[in-house]
Amino acid sequence: MIRTRFAPSPTGYLHIGGVRTALFNWLLTHRHGGKFILRIDDTDTERNRPEALQPILDGFRWLGLNWDEGPEIGGPCAPYFQSQRSERYTVAAMQLLETGDAYPDYMTKEELEADRKAAEAAKRPYIHRGPHRHTPASECVRLYREKPTTLRFKIPLGQESIVEDLICGHCVQKTDLIGDPVILRVDGRPLYNFASVIDDVDMKITHVIRAREHLSNTYVQVPMFAALGAELPKFGHVPVINEPNSNKKLSKRDMKKFLTPEIRAKLHAIGWTDEQIESRDDLNPVTVAFYREMGYLPAAVVNYLGRLGWSLDDKTEFIPLDQMIANFGLERVNDSPARFDPDKLYWLAGEYMKLLPMPEKVQGCIPFLRRAGMIADPPSPAELVKLGRVLEASGDRIKLFSDVLIYGGPFFRNDPIYDEKAVTKKLKKAGAADVLRGFVPRLQAAEQFDAPALEKLLHDYCAEKNLKAGDLVHPLRVAVTGVEVGIGLFDTLAILGREETLRRIDMGLKLG
RNA sequence: GCCCCCAUCGUCUAGAGGCCUAGGACAUAGCCCUCUCAAGGCUAAGACAGGGGUUCGAAUCCCCUUGGGGGUACCA
User: Fold this and answer.
1) What local confidence, expressed as pLDDT, does residue A221 receive?
2) Residue A50: is the preceding peptide bond cis (ω within 30°)?
3) How far apart are CA A245 and CA A241, in angstroms?
4) Labelling A497: which of A78, A241, A280, A357 has CA 20 to 30 A away?
5) Known catalytic residues of A?
């Protein structure tokens, strides 16, 4: 049985790249049957932000990426927070100290820095080996007990650190080129490279699937597994994801820069105020949270992420989760970096929305209408009926739940918001008002007020008056909805009903 | 500086020496459909980074160059 893990550090908000890595772990686990473990790498207490954890967990839950062991649910290898495992790291470090695989290093940061500068000036690699590297183990133990300091792992020399990577293939690094890494800080807290190894051993991780930037860490970690007498897990280093329109790695620092004026406008359009946006620093298009708030279907996000760096074959783009699980394998993970492309994600969102059953579509749209203050909480039965009719008539126009505001807005507001340009172009156009006015009696007299009947009514009228359908359709649409775009006109009128249609035509005519 | 990794249309990708005149998808453009906008249909434009090998034959294998990325922390 395989055991995989994803180990986010709550130092900032989780971005798309991290989620993609987690997804690959999750898929591999579900493909082969195993456990997916969530472990929190919070050893860096200076940069750690406890409030960043919850959004990460929420994001996973929203996407449906459940974890078998980890925060909130525990498991046989608890605790799953590195900050609560310090004793374990201390014990392991002391073990290495006693076996002669670690040694204390009393050099100060300043001395280290000077060494590094000197090495760089001389154009040779900087490889630190502490003075106590060759001190006998028993003496090292004594020194460390007397005066605790940083503990370094003793990289074995004259060897090659070999990683048979499931994605990168055969990767090699000469150990002579690897400096002895610090495993415990002066204050006893462990460093990533060490804590990660200990946890992977303790949690019996069989497959370490992580971002490519950890490949060089792996060369350091391989000898640690050996020194610990532990079996080496399999590794797979997935390529990084780059920022949109850039070949720089997506980083969790400076994510605010993705909150462009255009993105901000989109958020405004669905009812977010600037204050609300500012209070949420995870609200930008490289986080999962953003897509949830915009009303993307999580299945589309998962599909998109899964296809980013992995492919099923030469043509399949739409790959629902069960199909992805059944076919996922690291051998088809691409070897080179991928760029995040919001356009393709948007297209996939539409594809998934097409397939969503109507009751779920209705439920998904409600929060957006509510946020915009267009429906009651909970919605009245009449509102639900109307929403159903609007969504039915909207067809494939709704790709995101938030699109309900665009297509449903005119139906859930008391009065239309008249778009100035539309009014000028369609309603104030020469003759338009007269055409519209002339059609009113027909609407008043119509026997039936449903879409097919209205269509016939309008076409008959146009034929009679020798008009093109558009001559009446356009002004009529603007009069009753205020805008030029929307769902089919006859559905629009039918949903509004005769009385409301006539009232709005009257409003529109007053503008002209 | 040193080390490691990567390199096919704008983007995601297919491609395991002949199925390649390099396939698909997103985006783009045009046309059709049409009451607008979507959706749908059709079409167009668009790539093997460069140079050397190996081979009868290279996008595919090797080397070099170039370009890009990552690491080089008492960050993860």
Assistant:
1) 96
2) no
3) 11
4) A357
5) 252
